Amino acid sequence: MHILATEGLTKRFPTVTAVDQLTVTVGPGVTGLVGANGAGKSTLIKILLGLLPPSGGSARVLDLDVTARGADIRRLVGYMPEHECLPPDVSATELIVHFARMSGLPRTAARERAADVLRHVGLAEERYRPVGTYSTGMKQRVKLAQALVHDPKLIFLDEPTNGLDPRGRDEMLTLIRRIGAEFGISVLVTSHLLGELERICDHVIVIDAGRLLRSSAIGEFTQVTQTVEVEVDEGLDDLAAHLVAGGQAVSRQGRLLVVKVTGPESYDAIRDATAELGLCLIRLEQGRHRIEDVFRDEVAHV
Amino acid sequence: MSEIYDIGYRHYDGPRLGRGHSTRALAVHSLRGVFGLGRPARSKIVPFALVGIMFIPSIVSIAIMALAQQRGIPYSGFAVVMQAVVAIFLAAQAPAVVAPDLRYRVLPLYLSRPVSIAEYVGAKVTAMTVAVFALIAGPLTLAYVGELVVDMPGPPATGEYLGAMLMALVLSLLLSAFGLALASFTPRRGLGVASVITVYLLSSASVPVIYATFAETGNVETAKWAWLANPFWLVDSVQHWLFGTPPHSIEGDYPSGPVSALLLVVLLAVAMLALALRYRKAAAR
């Protein structure tokens, strides 16, 4: 079953074409929508919410047509915008109860759901304080809570990790994974970082300039572009030479060495090489794929 | 911190009510916001102080009726006499209804829900209208109840009271539509307050200027039109036409009633159109 499907979807603005002949289907689970800033991610979400009429093509969300059944779609989906969207002078509790009622929940149910959902996103006593006093991480949680409060079938999360520090980022990603896996709510999450979506998504869609670059299960992505980053105290050049001599594909990125992983033997080769050269190994980390890598690969395939 | 047992995520399978329910919930939420309910204590100071001031003439009226058997401010003239307080209330509280949602970009959270932009604006106008109406109707009703209790000689002025209540509702709608339109064009709260009060002051100040200009040149009939520049006198002139109450202008009479009524309707339409255009633009962002 498809959670959403588009067919030749196009959105033209006077000066730009934000979405261009996009045909894509999304199944249940967590789906990542990756693209550089301005690639058309936010426009696509607005179309899927039935807020922006498409210039051409069609789209269905939960099997409802976006142009004809917009209000019905919005009853069943949740939306977390990219930008700040919280009034500072009300408490999180009051705000979330209000938005539950705006989604059609009766008063008592709205209170219960608000308390439940604020607990799930990890807001405790501070939920009675005005939102204006919150940190960025807490505000992001409130934004997520308002998208979840009416127990939607599907939520759209637009750049949920924006502005978060590494720890907040990790916590947010874990939460999104839980929403998809434990809560049973399908998620469409956008980001301009493929690396962070890799951890939590079942499926990734890459768009650029409104066009579909690629849509595939996450496994295929990681197989194609798996790398490991190596950082040593000094002697990076020696290590690179040693690894190349051993038949590894190595490239240098600043103070890091990026080694392409062809199998378990690649890790052994790095370990052995550092040990033989007597280098001080600082970091050995799974490579973060940036969107540029995918673009480069796609161009190479053409 | 106490440990909360994780009972896992629970789905909601209760009723999901229609858009009417959501719109009402928004109107009530906004109305609470006007009076600062559910907000920090300082948000309550201005609205409740103004409500208090509005009740003073009614209490004085009751005292006069009880002690001197004479009427104080007539019901039909209450809004005109108290116009400065009503205008300050409008200027201070109208931005609280519309400005935060625009300034802090809360609007997308509403629009991603079933309510339409028309229902959103309708709920906001309703909330502000009810608030201004309560501000005027509360003291009117207190004075009327006072009159019944005091048992003045002669029949109670029930007709005048009911007429004044109806006109208070019309006035509230006109003021709210304009106040919200102005405030929505200036989403910074301070600017919103300033713009509403400026427009009120201009409309008030222009009355004597226009009146004097025409009266000096001998056009006394034309000069009467000057009254209609101020919303309170405009509504009073419609009341004068509809219910035959004495005009509460400072001197002289109003021009023909039907034209005032027409002007009132046109002004309402203009304010609503401005709101519609403003929010169509805001929704497209």
TrEMBL record, chain A:
Record domain ABC transporter: where: 4-234
UniProt keyword Nucleotide-binding, yes or no: yes
SUPFAM superfamilies noted in UniProt: P-loop containing nucleoside triphosphate hydrolases
Keyword ATP-binding among UniProt keywords: yes
Keywords noted in UniProt: ATP-binding, Nucleotide-binding, Transport
SMART domains cross-referenced by the UniProt entry: AAA
UniProt similarity note: Belongs to the ABC transporter superfamily.
Name of the molecule in the record: ABC-2 type transport system ATP-binding protein
Highest classification ranks of the organism: Bacteria, Bacillati, Actinomycetota, Actinomycetes, Streptosporangiales
Automatic annotation (TrEMBL), chain B:
Ranges that cross the membrane: 45-67, 73-99, 120-141, 161-183, 190-214, 259-279
Domain of life: Bacteria
UniProt keyword Transmembrane helix present: yes
Keywords, ordered alphabetically: Membrane, Transmembrane, Transmembrane helix
Name of this chain's protein: ABC-2 type transport system permease protein
Species this chain originates from: Nonomuraea fuscirosea
